[in-house]
Design goal:
Blueprint: H1 24-54, H2 58-82, H3 89-121, H4 125-155, H5 162-193, H6 196-220, H7 225-231, H8 247-276, H9 280-307, H10 311-336, H11 349-382, H12 388-445, H13 450-469, H14 476-481, E1 493-499, E2 504-509, E3 515-519, E4 522-526, H15 529-544, E5 551-555, H16 561-567, E6 574-579, H17 583-591, E7 605-609, H18 612-618, E8 623-628, H19 644-652, E9 654-665, H20 671-684, E10 688-695, E11 698-707, E12 713-714, H21 715-723, H22 728-735, H23 742-746, E13 749-751, H24 772-779, H25 786-794, E14 804-805, H26 808-817
Parallel strand pairs: 5-6, 5-8, 6-7, 8-9, 12-14
Antiparallel strand pairs: 1-2, 2-3, 3-4, 9-11, 10-11, 10-13
């Protein structure tokens, strides 16, 4: 190769910022850290806000994710085509950041405005899906197009040489490092302490600061990058390029890498959510760890891209190692981590978070580092003398397009069709195929070491096939008991495990023959006395108190026991269940029919597969009663069914005289979370009351019941109903949980708003704009203070004379059943 001429020591180029190298490029790297911080804050906020409108079902989440990442993909492709290279790269970058910040603030007002239109027209089937997609596109495409364009814009500040491409990899890694900061900042501080508005302003302020520094740097550099690049000898471009295959192969490989990365993230987030507890903090930790690995890998890959003669070779072997890393993670999540002898309830929640971070790093780090390294290696392998913006745009778009397909295919299809075990095996196979696309041509071209290369490749292929065959299935104990699995292994039998589109469920049988229904990694319902008491009390209060409960909406199927209690009321004509997981009705009908009055075959019961909030927002139907049978409020997404705005919507869906009942758990939560649930409900339904479900006389969980009109409970009328022949099944159902009469049922009364004002004095009202409950409850998910919480509440209990009405004899029976708390008749 012809040697490059030496540059005179006093060249005028010394006074020209050459590709803004040291110290300029490190400063640009810091700008990308800020850009990534703002981007992840926005992503978390927008997904939280949009799910309140389009729902949190797998389909809705898939539409949101596809739109978000699709916008970034399009942005990376369009910028090099729409923006001329004559424009200063840093100035373009600054304007992009300003645009992101401005649109981020606009989206705050746009989502509620367009959300109202969506809920007016939204529905199901193809029309509903198209409307969700249109809504997501209007809100997400403008800012994500700009986000996707930032890396190609700044890439024009470097050359497409190994050294220049390495800097692009560092920019990408810096962006990911900022994303880690944004993820943790939003998940652990901004949304826990403030709300989405404050978090948005913080992100917009970061965008503005990044833009201001970019403009300042652009002003300090007087010549465009293309002019500087043309006049500066390319010192790093001294190696012969390896032209083993066209760049299109690199695009296919990096697309497969993106597919595997996002598909694995979906799979592993589900399993780690079971292991660590599916709170907002858990998902922030998992996402942060995933991003940390990508960022470190990107930095390492950038160094390799700068020093290796054939980065495509490194990219190929990287994919072989990815297959091995997937096997490592699959083994840890199925065979190791679920059985570590850890008792979360005996440690501080913050120490638990430290442990969660350690376990997530141990499981995810190897694979994420390799995926992070793949991007700069692909850039270097595809690099030619071309516009750097086009190079980065194409590689980034290919990686993002693969990621979109991987995330959607896994969340909507693969898990439900073939399960996590086979899905991970498929990803390993795809990683191996990506490796072969790069390594086989190189093995054929290795004239001096062809045999050695071929043997090494065959050995790697054999090892990959062996690892694929040994991927274990998901641990049944993990699905059933989640973070408490070590203490339950071997106690009873897991008789069913299923992975659905939205969640994994299990059914277990205790040594004495009892059945438990598991979802979100914990027992959500069972045939045990304390759970049967709550489930049947919830159902019967829902239908016994209204004057005419013809139509009832139940949010959440559970084990179907609550639905069964509702459906056997002779006045009920139609029961609608909104259940988010399609797998649940089938499983429940198979195992719990004897406990839920065989609701699956009841012609009055109709199941709608949708999340409860979305169904309520998009239906035109009104109901005489609405009740909820939900998973814990610390489970991410559940808090959306405890906000003031949701309760206001429930109020609008009630017919005159209708009631709403909700289940409030006292275990695995904090006093602050319980008070928030109660205070928010009371704020919307001041005419309400609490009824308690106890276990051996001590607090276990509660039922809140509210009505728009003044709440009056006619004891005589309830006694008359339960004494009539048509209510024989209802009376029998109550008797099975130890409640022999109407006075005994109503004696579980525990309080009402006027009596509990002091207890609720500092309670937090949960709004859509903050979903504060999920943060409060997440801090207490390992606590068992149910007895203490209920005892404190009961200290304020008084049987009010204007709530219960009836004859003197019946009121006396209520007084005696309530432990002697006097009730005066009217």
């Amino acid at each position: 190769m012809k040697k490059q001429p030496r540059r005179p020591a006093t060249s005028t180029l010394d006074r020209v910022p050459r590709r803004f190298s040291a110290p300029g490029l490190p400063l640009v790297l810091l700008l990308f850290v800020g850009s990534g911080t703002a981007a992840l804050i926005y992503e978390i906020l927008w997904f939280q806000l949009l799910q309140l409108v389009v729902g949190s079902s797998a389909v809705s989440l898939g539409i949101l994710l596809g739109t978000f990442m699709g916008g970034m993909c399009l942005g990376s492709l369009l910028l090099p085509r729409l923006i001329s290279t004559r424009h200063h790269p840093l100035r373009v970058y600054g304007w992009l950041e300003l645009g992101i910040g401005a649109i981020g603030i606009l989206v705050l007002s746009l989502i509620p405005l367009i959300g109202g239109l969506y809920t007016a027209w939204g529905g199901y089937g193809l029309q509903g899906f198209l409307l969700r997609g249109a809504f997501a596109a209007v809100c997400l495409l403008p800012p994500t197009l700009l986000m996707g364009a930032t890396l190609p814009a700044v890439a024009r500040w470097v050359e497409t040489t190994p050294a220049g491409v390495a800097w692009i990899g560092f920019f990408y890694g810096g962006n990911i490092a900022g994303a880690v900061v944004g993820c943790l900042l939003a998940g652990f501080y901004l949304l826990r302490v403030y709300d989405v508005a404050i978090a948005t302003y913080v992100a917009a302020a970061v965008n503005t600061a990044v833009a201001a520094i970019s403009f300042a740097l652009a002003a300090a550099t007087t010549r465009p990058a293309e002019t500087v690049a043309a006049s500066v000898p390319a010192e790093s471009d001294t190696r012969e390029p390896v032209a083993s295959q066209p760049a299109s192969v690199i695009y296919v490989v990096i697309a497969l890498s993106g597919f595997c990365a996002l598909a694995a993230e979906v799979l592993w987030t589900r399993q780690l959510g079971l292991l660590l507890g599916g709170s907002v903090y858990t998902f922030s930790i998992i996402l942060a760890v995933f991003l940390i690995g990508l960022g470190i890998g990107s930095a390492g890959g950038s160094v390799l891209a700068k020093t290796m003669a054939d980065p495509g070779l490194a990219l190929g072997w990287c994919q072989i190692l990815v297959a091995a890393a997937i096997a490592w993670t699959a083994y840890l999540l199925a065979e190791s981590l679920p059985y570590w002898p850890i008792a979360p309830s005996i440690s501080s929640i913050w120490f638990t978070f430290h442990l969660d971070l350690t376990r997530a790093l141990l499981a995810l780090f190897p694979a994420t580092v390799l995926w992070g390294a793949s991007f700069p290696l692909a850039l270097a392998a595809a690099a030619q003398k071309q516009d750097p913006g086009r190079l980065v745009g194409r590689v980034y778009a290919a990686n993002t397009a693969g990621a979109i397909m991987g995330a959607l295919a896994t969340s909507l299809l693969l898990v439900a069709w073939i399960g996590s075990q086979h899905a991970q095996q498929l990803l390993m196979a795809l990683a191996a195929i990506a490796a072969l696309l790069l390594l086989v041509p190189r093995a054929a071209a290795a004239a001096t070491a062809r045999l050695r290369f071929a043997v090494l490749l065959l050995a790697a292929g054999g090892l990959t096939l062996t690892l694929i065959a040994t991927v274990p299935p998901v641990s049944p104990w993990l699905v059933a008991y989640g973070r408490f699995a070590p203490g339950w292994v071997g106690i009873g039998d897991i008789v069913y495990v299923g992975e659905g589109v939205h969640s994994s469920v299990a059914v277990s049988r205790t040594p004495d023959g009892g059945l438990k229904y598991h979802a979100a990694g914990k027992v959500q319902a069972s045939s045990e006395p304390q759970d049967m008491g709550l489930q049947r009390m919830l159902g019967h209060l829902t239908t016994l108190l209204p004057d005419n409960p013809r139509s009832v909406l139940i949010i959440g199927y559970g084990a179907g026991v609550t639905t069964g209690a509702v459906a056997i009321d002779p006045r009920v004509e139609r029961v609608t269940i909104a259940e988010i997981e399609p797998l649940v009705p089938e499983v429940v009908s198979r195992y719990f029919s004897e406990f839920n009055e065989n609701v699956a075959s009841n012609p009055r019961v109709h199941v709608r597969i949708d999340d409860g909030r979305h169904y309520l927002l998009t239906t035109d139907e009104k109901f005489d009663a609405v009740t909820t049978d939900l998973v814990d409020p610390w489970v991410k997404g559940t808090a959306a069914l405890f906000t003031k705005e949701f309760f206001e919507e429930v109020k609008q869906r009630l017919n005159p005289g209708g009631v709403v009942t909700i289940f409030v758990q006292l275990y695995e939560t904090s006093p602050e979370a319980v008070k928030s649930e109660v205070a928010t409900f009371f704020d919307v339904f001041p005419n309400s009351a609490i009824f308690g479900n106890t276990r051996e006389g001590r607090g276990y969980d509660m039922v809140l019941i509210g009505q728009v009109e003044p709440l009056r409970i006619d004891l005589d009328e309830m006694v008359r109903r339960l004494s009539s022949p048509e209510y024989a099944r209802v009376k029998e159902s109550l008797g099975s949980i130890g409640i022999a009469s109407a006075p005994e049922l109503l004696a579980t009364y525990a309080g009402r708003p006027s009596d509990l004002s002091e207890w609720l004095r500092q309670a937090t009202i949960t709004h859509d704009s903050d979903l504060r409950l999920q943060y409060l409850a997440g801090m207490g998910m390992n606590m068992f203070q149910n007895e203490k919480i209920y005892a404190e509440l009961l200290a304020y209990r008084r049987f009010p004379e204007d709530l219960f009405v009836g004859s003197e004899e019946r009121m006396q029976a209520l007084w005696e059943a309530g432990g002697g708390a006097k009730v005066e008749s009217r």
